[in-house]
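S2.1 Query sequence (DUF3332 domain-containing protein)
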Amino acid sequence: MKKTITKIVALAAVSVALSGCVGSNAVTGYLMKFNLKAVDNRYARGGLNMLLAPAYGLTVAADYLVFNSLEFWTGSNPLTGSPHIFDAKMDTYLDINHHLDKSLTEAPVGPITRTNMIKKGQMQQIDENTIQMDITYQSGERATLIGVRDGEMVTYFIDGEVVAQTSIDELESYAASRA
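Output structure tokens follow.
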């Protein structure tokens, strides 16, 4: 009985992992970037590529078995935040999405990474106790972050909703650790 359960779990894990083998291959891409940045000569890059062949084997395995699967099931790559290649909008030979339930046209699991990564933020001081940052996310959405000092505490709001509170001592300690 124990062997049967182990086989079923292993089969389920393999089928889930292999379902996402197509993706952006982010880990392999990072290794390729390293290869390109290491030297400026095409022949040296080719030689380095041959030396890194075992590493490329590991990165492809990591992409196929882990990261591309996560990308497939969540809709975005956990390393880069980029959307899955299968969700790209393009002219297709067959259009079937309009015939399907909406749940079959999107990734079934929410993204593991923050897909709303900040693209741009502009900060301005409103008064001596209030700072405002207008945020533009990579998705194009916008939000307003406001920090309001009240005595020794600072309360943070995003679009009017309280999201955090810190003390001035905590902020000073953080600033000192970053200097």
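Strands lie at 118-127, 130-137, 142-150, 153-158, 161-167. The chain has a mean pLDDT of 83.
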